[in-house]
């Protein structure tokens, strides 16, 4: 099934590039999973991203900096329902979603009407713990939506 998940994500991103969907910063959302946060961190960023001390032990600091630099929305998803609610908000026209391929496939199917660029996370410690992301992919996706 993982093979299929990867293919769905790949095809979605290819189709999105051909659509050349553009939006303003205020209509773009970066959505990422809670497992990006370092598991040893004592900060409760699940409820409030401003709680992040930006220590650099995880990529939340970098994602927050992208949000500030480009003026785009950012949200930590604590689960699929919360993520879908944020993505389907009327004022969101484009989404950069970071997650494992399984969650990305599920989200893409649930929010088919939205322009979503899916960025698979890296799982050096297995699923749902201390995951990572290639920041260049996120930056390129932001710039593609905003050009």
What would the keywords be for this entry?
147 residues; alpha/beta; Rossmann fold; four-stranded parallel beta sheet; 5 helices; 16% strand; globular
Task: Characterize this entry briefly.
The chain has helices at 2-19, 60-70, 80-87, 101-110, 135-146, and strands at residues 28-33, 73-77, 94-99, 115-120.
Characterise this structure.
With 147 residues, the protein is of the alpha/beta class. It has one domain: 3-Layer(aba) Sandwich (Rossmann fold), CATH 3.40.50. The protein is 40% helix and 16% strand. It has 5 helices and 4 strands. It has helices spanning 2-19, 60-70, 80-87, 101-110, 135-146, and strands at residues 28-33, 73-77, 94-99, 115-120. A 4-stranded parallel beta sheet has the order 2-1-3-4, with helices on both faces. Strand 3 (94-99), helix 4 (101-110) and strand 4 (115-120) form a beta-alpha-beta unit. Helix 1 crosses helix 4 (101-110) and helix 2 runs parallel beside helix 5.
Q: Classify the secondary structure makeup into a structural class.
A: alpha/beta
The proportion of strand residues reads: 15-25%
Helix-strand sequence? HEHEHEHEH
What portion of residues is helical?
A: 40-55%
Q: Going across the biggest sheet, name each strand in turn.
A: 2-1-3-4
Number of domains: 1
Mean pLDDT: 94
* Total strand segments: 4
> Any idea what the CATH architecture is?
3-Layer(aba) Sandwich
Give the CA-based shape: globular
Low-pLDDT runs of 5+ residues are: none
The CATH class is Alpha Beta
Instruction: Give the termini separation.
Output: 35 Å
> Total number of helical segments?
5
Radius of gyration (Å) = 14 Å
Quaternary state, please? single chain
* Main sheet characteristics: 4 strands, parallel
CATH topology: Rossmann fold
Pfam families: DUF116 (PF01976)
Protein name: DUF116 domain-containing protein
InterPro entries: DUF116
């Amino acid at each position: 099934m993982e093979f299929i998940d990867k293919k769905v994500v790949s095809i979605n991103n290819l189709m999105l590039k051909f659509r050349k969907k553009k939006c303003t910063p205020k209509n773009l959302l970066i959505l990422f999973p809670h497992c990006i946060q370092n598991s040893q961190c004592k900060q409760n960023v699940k409820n409030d991203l401003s709680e992040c001390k930006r220590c650099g032990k995880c990529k939340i600091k970098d994602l927050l900096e992208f949000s500030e630099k480009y003026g785009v929305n950012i949200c930590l998803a604590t689960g699929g329902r919360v993520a879908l609610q944020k993505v389907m908000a009327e004022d969101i026209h484009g989404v950069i979603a970071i997650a494992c391929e399984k969650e990305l496939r599920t989200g893409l199917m649930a929010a088919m009407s939205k322009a979503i660029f899916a960025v698979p996370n890296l799982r050096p410690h297995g699923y749902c713990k201390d995951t990572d992301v290639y920041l260049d992919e996120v930056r390129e996706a932001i710039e593609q939506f905003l050009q």
